Inverse folding.
């Protein structure tokens, strides 16, 4: 029988080392040489390159395939480490985490059952305990997930199952379950993540199950509005399944007042879920940890390590204050985690019992290596660095005559738009997507756009602790010059007679130029 020379094994260990060395050397050279965050290739150009690859063609071998793949992918990737990348919640990644990524990919552990993972399960559980302790959960538990969307979905699933439990502790069934399901409500602000509404849909809740709670002028959840919403739900004969607070709203980077929100949830017995996907890094912050005061009173918490812990995607976790809550997702299969565990190796460590996933990567290894290499305080200092940078940019723009700040932040976002005196709201609105598109098409800088209080704006999401104020100023200068160019183009197009008509010898004579452009 002919053995494959493609699969990693004892016979191909040297080939594996050579292949990875070549990839690492190539990527390192590209990272060092990157002069802008994106090459600027058009979608049509990229589509042609992708379509040109014959996936059914003759094999070319591992070295050639990896070189070809790098030329296609790495040459046209978006580089999050570049200081002119300031668009979304993408972070540059910690070196020890990248090394751990290579390790876990090669070994290919799945942490669904203990007999597939052994020490990996123990390491993940240690990190879950560490994160729970940072939150303030004395007896907390949890599980790693693919990202904040999955973490939020699982948290709301747990809250739903609790709400569908009768007074006797048994799960409601049949007509009683259907009737209760139709009355469940989730209270959240419109500043929260869209995954809350999508989770409600996936969980079979009614179309109007997510009730919007009012916010203050900064976009934070207003406790007074939450109190009124809780009363309104009760008066309508409905049931509060969960209240969702956010620490690090996607657009504004604001932190909801967790203490007052927890007071209200405790008063009515509501499940409080805190979406700390963005703001979870504050758990390690030497100077901003107080922004999360009250998070220990939540029933569940989402933390995305692949945001403010500087981990490669994917790496997230759902933490619960009471470990017994995770049992609500347990599902048994005879071939994997049978309900009758007699003779099974360490059945209490089959993490599939607490996860929505079955096969699951050992993403915890990346965080483990990072904490050992950099230390928790080191990661916290990087979180403070990006927040400090955002604060410096806000101060820099406070009196800017052209770039107008739209909202404050608690974390590392900057919301602004180009609108000097003389440019009305409609023209400023129209400039937002055009400026972003021109910058993206050039590849020189990547910024995001959103809508705040009904107005389009540009958004910087600063997640690179090595970026400086001058780096951000360079991006803002590109925004200014792009807006200048677009406005100048509008003025030229608005002229009845192009200015070159009076000067170019090969153009037929037309009416005289307007006085303003002579």
């Amino acid at each position: 029988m002919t053995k494959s020379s493609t699969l990693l094994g004892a016979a191909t260990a040297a080939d594996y080392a050579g292949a990875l060395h070549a990839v690492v050397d190539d990527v390192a050279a590209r990272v060092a040489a990157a002069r802008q965050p994106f090459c600027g290739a058009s979608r049509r150009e990229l589509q042609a390159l992708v379509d040109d690859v014959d996936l059914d063609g003759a094999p070319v071998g591992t070295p050639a395939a990896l070189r070809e793949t790098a030329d296609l992918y790495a040459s046209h990737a978006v580089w999050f480490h570049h200081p002119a990348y300031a668009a979304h919640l993408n972070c540059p990644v910690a070196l020890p985490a990248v090394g751990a990524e290579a390790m876990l990919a090669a070994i290919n552990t799945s942490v669904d059952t203990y007999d597939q993972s052994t020490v990996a399960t123990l390491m993940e559980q240690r990190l879950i305990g560490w994160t729970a302790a940072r939150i303030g959960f004395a007896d907390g538990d949890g599980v790693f997930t693919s990202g904040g969307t999955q973490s939020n979905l699982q948290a709301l699933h747990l809250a739903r199952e609790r709400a569908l439990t009768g007074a006797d502790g048994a799960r409601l069934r049949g007509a009683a379950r259907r009737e209760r399901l139709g009355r469940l409500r989730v209270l959240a602000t419109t500043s929260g993540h869209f995954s809350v509404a999508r989770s409600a849909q996936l969980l079979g809740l009614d179309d109007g199950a997510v009730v919007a709670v009012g916010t203050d002028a900064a976009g934070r959840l207003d406790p007074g509005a939450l109190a009124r919403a809780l009363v309104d739900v009760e008066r309508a004969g409905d049931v509060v399944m969960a209240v969702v607070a956010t620490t690090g709203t996607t657009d504004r980077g604001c932190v909801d007042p967790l203490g007052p929100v927890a007071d209200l949830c405790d008063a009515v017995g509501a499940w409080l879920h805190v979406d700390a996907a963005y703001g979870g890094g504050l758990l390690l912050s030497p100077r901003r940890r107080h922004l999360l005061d009250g998070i220990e009173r939540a029933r569940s918490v989402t933390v995305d390590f692949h945001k403010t812990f500087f981990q490669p995607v994917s790496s997230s976790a759902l933490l619960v204050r009471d470990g017994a809550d995770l049992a609500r997702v347990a599902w048994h299969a005879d071939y994997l985690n049978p309900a009758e565990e007699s003779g099974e190796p360490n059945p209490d460590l089959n993490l599939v019992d607490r996860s929505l996933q079955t096969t699951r990567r050992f993403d915890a290894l990346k965080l483990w290596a990072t904490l050992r290499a950099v230390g928790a305080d080191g990661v916290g200092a990087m979180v403070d660095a990006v927040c400090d940078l955002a604060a410096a940019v806000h101060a820099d723009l406070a009196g800017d005559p052209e770039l107008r700040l739209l909202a404050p932040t608690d974390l590392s976002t900057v919301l602004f738009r180009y609108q000097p005196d003389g440019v009305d709201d409609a023209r400023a609105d129209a400039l937002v997507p055009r400026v972003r598109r021109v910058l993206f098409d050039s590849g020189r800088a990547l910024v995001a756009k959103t809508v705040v209080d009904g107005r389009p704006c540009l958004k910087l999401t600063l997640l690179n602790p090595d970026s400086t104020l001058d780096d951000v100023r360079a991006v803002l200068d590109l925004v200014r010059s792009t807006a200048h160019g677009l406005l100048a183009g509008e003025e030229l197009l608005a002229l009845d007679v192009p200015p070159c008509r009076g000067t170019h010898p090969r153009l037929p004579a037309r009416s005289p130029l307007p006085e303003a452009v002579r």
